[in-house]
Specification:
The complex is a heterodimer of chains A (114) and B (109).
Chain A lengths: L3 E4 L2 E4 L4 E8 L5 E7 L6 E7 L2 E5 L6 E7 L2 E7 L7 E8 L9 E2 L3 E5 L1
Parallel strand pairs in A: 2-11
Antiparallel strand pairs in A: 1-3, 3-8, 4-5, 4-9, 5-6, 7-8, 9-10, 9-11
Chain B lengths: L2 E3 L3 E5 L4 E8 L6 E6 L6 E6 L3 E5 L2 E6 L4 E6 L8 E8 L5 E3 L3 E6 L1
Parallel strand pairs in B: 2-11
Antiparallel strand pairs in B: 1-3, 3-8, 4-5, 4-9, 6-7, 7-8, 9-10, 9-11
The chains are: A mainly beta (114), B mainly beta (109).
Chain lengths: 114, 109
């Protein structure tokens, strides 16, 4: 148990579907992140939220839409995805943004786009 | 550009010692992290080095040389449960994390 919970753990969707990934942290952290993890590639930072405000969007296509209603919850809304979007999507949290402390990761949502 | 290099895969024997190397090129430097990730699980924090030298934590040690842009993770008395991917990440001058692609470590009996 890492304190960061992601649902669903596995998701299969067609290119025309709309689905959402959910992340919840019970660590009292202020910063939350979405990462994409593809096989044999470095983690790709997608979005960063600090105190519910989006502080970073790393040129992510608009078919990925984040939402952060409060400091404990983070969503990633998915629509009209492409097969190359199939990957493990990891949520993480940290006390602040300075990255001198560890990130706490969820176990990820494995997404397959058909 | 900013870059992290680490071997893609390594194999070692149970009970032995293995060293996983990581070299980094970043715009400024504010520390280096190692994370462990078992298949299908969350990455978990192993170590953070910001000063030169070796830091030991049980069977795991992490070394940093800032002048060489180099770090390694040393795993002693290997156990089967150490089979995992090991991720190296450096923090640049803007406190952004730059990640390596990970090293898959296979432990054989």
């Amino acid at each position: 148990e890492t304190g960061v919970t992601q649902t669903p753990r596995h998701l299969v969707m067609g290119m025309t579907n709309k689905k959402s990934l959910k992340c919840e942290q019970h660590l009292g952290h202020n910063a939350m992140y979405w990462y994409k993890q593809s096989a044999k590639k470095p983690l790709e930072l997608m979005f960063v939220y600090n105190f519910k405000e989006q502080t970073e969007n790393n040129s992510v296509p608009s078919r990925f839409s984040p939402e952060c209603p409060n400091s404990s919850h983070l969503f990633l809304h998915l629509h009209t995805l492409q097969p190359e979007d199939s990957a493990l999507y990891l949520c993480a949290s940290s006390p602040g943004l300075d990255h001198t402390g560890e990130l706490f990761f969820g176990e990820g949502s494995r997404l397959t786009v058909l | 550009g900013q870059n992290i290099d680490q071997p893609t895969e390594m194999t070692a024997t149970e009970g032995a010692i293995v060293q996983i190397n990581c070299t980094y090129q970043t715009s400024g430097f504010n520390g280096l992290f190692w994370y462990q990730q078992h298949a299908g699980e969350a990455p978990t924090f192993l170590s953070y080095n910001v000063l030169d030298g070796l830091e030991e934590k049980g069977r795991f040690s992490s070394f940093l040389s800032r002048s060489k842009g180099y770090s390694y993770l040393l795993l002693k008395e290997l156990q089967m449960k150490d089979s995992a991917s090991y991720l190296c990440a450096a923090t640049d001058s803007n406190y952004q994390l730059i990640w390596g692609a990970g090293t898959k470590l296979i432990i054989k009996p």
